[in-house]
Structure formats: C-alpha cells, structure tokens
Input
Amino acid sequence: MDTPVICEKEYLRIVAEFDFLWGRRTTMRERARMDYLITLINVFDAALAAEPAEN
Output
C-alpha cells in the first residue's frame, strides 16, 4: 500500500470518536461503528509502519 486510506488529521478525528464511544454505554449501532473505526485505525497504523524510516 503506497498511501494510507485516511490522512493523519482524519486518523486523529477517528481516534477521538472511538475514545468518546469507548467511555460510555453504547448501542449495537455504536458498537458496530467502533468496530469500523478500529479497522480504519489498524489500516492507518499498518500503512504507517510500512513506510520507510526517514534518516
């Protein structure tokens, strides 16, 4: 994968949304949303880890 699916700004928004949902009682729909957010976070993290390190 050459470029991440989402940019860093979007990643930070997604993490904030996940954190908000994590800290409360959630509905089934919100838990499904959290599952989707985790998927996006994992994809971004994997893409970041795959990038060559800058010297």
